[in-house]
Write a structure and sequence with these properties.
This protein is mainly β and 236 residues long. It has one domain (2-16, 28-234): outer membrane lipoprotein receptor (LolB), chain A. Helices cover 10% and strands 47% of the residues. The chain is built from two helices and twelve strands. It has helices spanning 2-10, 221-234; strands spanning 29-44, 47-62, 67-75, 81-89, 94-99, 104-108, 123-130, 137-146, 151-158, 164-172, 183-195, 211-212. Strands 7-8-9-10-11-1-2-3-4-5-6-12 form a twelve-stranded mixed β-sheet. A hairpin with a 6-residue loop joins strand 7 and strand 8. The longest helix is centred in the C-terminal third of the chain and has 14 residues, at 221-234. It is globular.
Length: 236
């Protein structure tokens, strides 16, 4: 498939003759944009179905406040633009999903916040370069597999500063309502990384009038995927 082929050719060409870098950490407060190319194959009412989306997610992360805000903007195959705001509060273990029409859903946050680091159990799989000449950026690439299912995360971070550049995960997600695993292949291209917070007020206006739900089945698939990607990077 396209994402795996591109990443295999672009990111994980091992550079020989160097010591193995160890998992690293970036700033405790930052903002970044995650450009998304995604495809998911799953069972719907007993029939095979697929979902393909493109778009971007702007992530605002504050480890000190133990909060994160994800502004998700995606476009489906019909050209429909989908905008959703996700507020994640690790102090109360709640996630608030706010839709464009003003409605809001509150769901439990089962993950535990960890520092913005490459997972400690990740394996270094090689180094590669972005660009050419004086504008070249060197990156280190790491890989780790998460249960349940066999979801594998690969992340490329800059050699100096541990700035994330590309994140991908593929394999099978958490079981669907019919008990089957959904195959997924997802790539995030990370741009506009900035340490610090340009909009700190975002963390003080979390929704308070959300309808409670017992699981994330109450929110759209593309939004669950954005939250899942964030959790793979910065929560356990």
């Amino acid at each position: 498939m396209f994402p795996k082929a591109v990443l295999a050719a672009l990111l994980w060409a091992v550079v020989s003759g160097q010591s193995k870098p160890r998992p690293c950490c970036t700033d405790h407060q930052f903002e970044m944009t995650l450009g998304e190319v995604a495809g998911s194959f799953f069972s719907s009412n007993g029939l095979p179905s697929s979902s393909i989306l493109t778009g971007d997610n702007t992530l605002h992360f504050d480890e000190y406040r133990k909060k994160a805000v994800v502004v998700s903007r995606l476009v489906d195959l019909k050209g429909n633009r989908i905008e959703v705001n996700v507020f994640i509060d690790f102090n109360t273990n709640k996630q608030f999903v706010q839709f464009a029409n003003g409605s809001c859903v509150s769901i439990p946050a089962y993950q535990i916040l960890r520092s913005p680091c490459v997972p400690a159990n990740a394996t270094f799989v090689g180094s590669s370069d972005f660009g050419y000449g004086p504008n070249m950026v060197e990156v280190n690439n790491f890989q780790v597999t998460f249960p349940p299912g066999d979801t594998t995360l690969r992340i490329a971070v800059t050699k100096y500063g541990c700035i994330p550049m590309v994140e991908s995960f593929y394999g099978h997600k958490i079981p669907q309502p019919d008990g089957k695993l959904a195959a997924i292949d997802l790539v995030f291209l990370i741009t506009n990384f900035k340490p610090g917070l340009s909009q700190p007020a975002l963390f003080d206006i979390f929704p308070t009038n959300c309808q409670g739900a017992s699981s994330d089945e109450a929110i759209p698939e593309h939004t669950r995927r954005a939250i899942h990607a964030f959790n793979l990077m910065y929560a356990n």
